Amino acid sequence: MDRSTALQDIPKHFDPGSVEEKWYDFWKENGFFHSEPDDRESYTVVIPPPNVTGVLHMGHMLNNTIQDVLVRRARMRGKNACWVPGTDHASIATEAKVVQKLRKEGITKADLTREEFLEHAWEWTEEHGGIILQQLQKLGASCDWERTRFTLEDDLYESVIDCFIELYNRGYIYRGKRMINWDPEAQTALSDEEVIHREEQSKLYHVRYRIKNSDRWVTIATTRPETILADTGVCVNPGDERYRELIGETAIIPMVEREVPVIADDYVDMEYGTGCLKITPAHDENDYQIGQKHDLEIIDMLKPDGTLSETAEYYVGEDRFKARELIIADLQERNQLVDVEEMTNKVGYSERTDAVIEPRLSLQWFCRMDKLSRPAHENVMNDTIQFYPAKFKNSYNHWMENIRDWCISRQLWWGQRIPAWYYGDGRDDYVIARTKEEALEKAREKTGDPSLAGSDIHQDEDVLDTWFSSWLWPITVFDGIREPDNEEINYYYPTDDLVTAPEIMFFWVARMIIAGYEFRGEKPFSNVYYTGIVRDSQRRKMSKSLGNSPDPIKLMEEYGADGVRVGMLFSSPAGNDLLFEEQLCEQGRNFANKIWNAFRFLSMNKQEDTEYSRDLDIDKTNLVDRWMLSRLHETIAGINKDMESFRINEALHKIYSLIWDDFCDWYIELIKADEPGTDIPEQRLARGLNFFEELMKLLHPFMPFITEEVWQHIRPRKTEEAMIVASWPAFDQSAVSAEDQALFSKIQRIISAVRNIRAEFKLSPNDNIDLLISAGDEQTARALRNNEWIFQKLQHIDTLEIRVDLAKPETSASAVVEGTEIFVPLKGFVDLDKERERIRKEIDRLQGFLKSIEGKLNNDGFVNNAPEEVVQRERDKKADTETNLEKLRGILRELE
RNA sequence: GGGCGAUUAACUCAGCGGUUUAGAGUGCUUCCCUUACAAGGAAGAAGUCGCAGGUUCGAAUCCUGCAUCGCCCA
Fold it and tell me: Which residues does the UniProt record annotate as the domain Aminoacyl-tRNA synthetase class Ia (predicted)?
């Protein structure tokens, strides 16, 4: 057949764009992603649901690539793999986006009813929602799209409400007035986890308060002088000599001229500021505690939007930060501002809106966590659920040990509405019910007033924290709350692996574990793999607001999805941050190209009308076949072990190296046709193809597209024989031969030594040389002689002689490999100085090596204490090195 | 303030049970369009493994302290 035609048929470069969509559709349309319960063992992963209106970023790329690797490998191993995709309604973020969009249209949220607003929100969600899931398909994510869920769809909504009611009935949910984190921008309460503390440069203001009926003053220090207007006490440490006489006196708050007591409490740090603390119970958590203890008045001076209310008396209607400036000026004017100190302190910001958080006393719904969290705490500490890397157990433990009640109500509309119905203004004038009818009935019962009408009760306006729905995710995607004994939940739960970012360990992972034990009595997953954070070359976290993140879609267009996947995985061991560089994707693309060309080469050699056997054994008489098989199985074992311990990048490195370094650089070179221009003999090619197929299987989870593409080209396949469902190669210990590997490695080293001689003496690879190999013993000589063809194949050689104790020809370049001498006669062109220099350098290196070995062996402690095996190894090394040195010295003598 | 982690070649990172005078990719130098692949091949240079102690026969690896950087929590 005409070889040049075959060459033209297959392009020189792999073009990912032309195959990715084709194979993705093929997999999807043939149901390879879909799972139904059956007899096989299940392997389940639930996706960490991204925000419904979110856009794919590099963190998602990393995270979902890893999930896909796990899922694809499990599928190939014959498990019933199920990867459930979906999105999260992200109350605050989505509501903020909708509000913003409406504002552009001249509509404010206040103009709308709840129902109207929700209509807009759903519209927005349907328009922008799920883009991110589309984008994941480009990456190759093998999710079961028929199972796509959204946290706000009806049955998930219902399940969340059920759980609220259940927890309320079990006594875990309560309503209370407590200090909470208030986001004045979103105008809602937040949980502690949603507050980000940032250290900043700020000012500590020293302000003096007059003591009533005296000419004395007391100086307090504060970073938030505007809250002075709501002060209801001044506090000092009881052990503080400076202020002892002031305790019990009355201080006068500046501006408002309020009279407040000077109290004593150990809480006050004498070293901090002036050692004298102003107390504002309504606007600071600690102040609130002290206020409660000492029965201080609570004065709330802020409106929900962060402006000052009438209660403040001054600066009413001004924003809190503007008020701060104003009061500083006024205090200065009154001569009450005595000092301004530069300092750093931590300021809390809203995780979603980035507004400065106001601690605020507010009536909210809480979930009591101490008892609820106990099984979740224990079962991570005792490794029933394993964290990768395990170091994250420490922070989990710390959080669990200091767990605080969870504020679960949000003053928003986008989310599951709290099923509490009020019939009066009293704090306990409510009932918990699924429907208005049920609520009315309960309210009548509770009040004993049968005349209560529907118009007398109203439902709580607030919704639940988004995480209060996503903590049920591994259960609700299988409808395990409403139908706790359904076939799917029983089959898929507990799920297997969860892949997520350490940032949401408390928000989400910990809470899922809590919910899993509470509602299913069982863990939600067995392993949690924490990915690193993707950063840019300046170590900044990649984010949309910084604009330092490449567009993943463009990246995939440029390097191919496989290339980007490899790029992401290459330098991302679990839990370590990865500095993303496009170069990594380039490396991935180049690897795809290498594979493509290996495939191209093998294909070029195929004869039309020939069916290459799939189950042909290796040629047992051929060292190269035995070596390749041995390396293959060694790698299978290594990858399996790496994957079990979630060392995914290590596994990828292993298959990368096996394909590139072993298969392409050596195996293919050695199966090439003996005569240029002719094709590889059938059986030899069949064996090469078989090896290549095994390599493609091992690579498939990492690079799904190119592997499927070449797999389908190698032979005609039926649909059910697709790469995606090919069997993962089984490890066979008997295929691994240390002996074959050692011999082949020796041959490789001899060839490298010859190449080095060529390079040093400027011989072109095409120049024919004579090669003399002088083995130290007959056994080695015979082994090498049996494989003469390998030297002939990889080097242009006129005459090759392999014997024991060959004499060094004059004017030749030499090298010694593992006691075997190599001579390349240079026909008078040898630069003797250069050759002597080469040999001396090698002697120096070996002498240094020998010295370090002798150091060990001359040490009695080592010889007596180290394991015999280790000592023997050193002895062998010493003997080998001495032999090599002796031979090199002999060579040098002849040169001098 | 408490905790966790990092510090290895010019750059980005591996190095899991202690033992080939430390590995990969990129970059660099030299040579090569050799029967697939220049997005490639061959050869090579390049590191007292942050600092100081300690344990040990032996430490990049374990322990302690310090320095610098990062993250988490209060």
Answer: 22-578
Strand nucleotide closest to residue A604 (CA to C1')? B36
* A679 token code pair: 């094709």
d(Cα A692, Cα A688) in Å, to the nearest integer?
A: 6
A475 touches A163 (CB < 8 A) = no
**What are the pLDDT digits (tens) for A21-58?**
999 999 999 999 999 999 999 999 999 999 998 888 88
Residues 809-868 of A with CB under 7 A from strand B: 844-849, 852-853, 856, 859, 861-862, 865-867
> Regarding predicted confidence, which is higher, A830 or A692?
A692
Q: Which of residues 261-290 of A touch strand B (CB under 7 A)?
A: none
What domains are there in chain A, each with its CATH number?
A: 3-13+557-736 (1.10.730.10), 196-359 (3.90.740.10), 831-896 (1.10.287)
Is there contact between A876 and strand B, defined as CB under 7 Å from any strand atom? no
Percent residues over pLDDT 70 in chain A: 98
| Strand B and A870 CB separated by under 7 Å | yes
Please identify residues in chain A, positions 313-372, with a C-beta within 7 angstroms of any atom of strand B.
346
Alpha carbons A495 and A512: distance in angstroms, whole number:
12
Kindly state the tokens that stand for A807: 């004499």
Q: How far apart are CA A378 and CA A380, in angstroms?
A: 6
Band of pLDDT at residue A2, cut at 50, 70 and 90: very low
Distance of A744 CA from B12 C1′ (whole Å): 33
Per residue in A104-162, pLDDT tens? Answer: 999 999 899 999 999 999 999 998 888 999 999 999 999 999 999 999 999 999 999 99
Is the peptide bond between A676 and the residue preceding it cis, with omega within 30 degrees of 0? no
Query: Is A544 labeled as ligand-binding?
Result: yes
As a whole number, mean pLDDT of residues A264-274 equals 85
Taking a C-beta distance cutoff of 8 angstroms, is the pair A217, A242 a contact? no
Smallest CA–C1' separation from A766, nucleotide: B34
**Cβ(A89)–Cβ(A71) under 8 Å?**
no
Chain B nucleotides reached by a protein CB under 7 Å: 2-6, 12-16, 19-21, 24-26, 30-32, 34-44, 56-58, 69-74
3-state secondary structure A263-279: EECCCCCCCCCCCEEEE
Q: Long-range contacts: A743-746, Cβ < 8 Å, 24+?
A: A743/A623, A743/A627, A743/A783, A743/A787, A744/A623, A744/A624, A744/A627, A746/A784, A746/A817, A746/A818, A746/A820
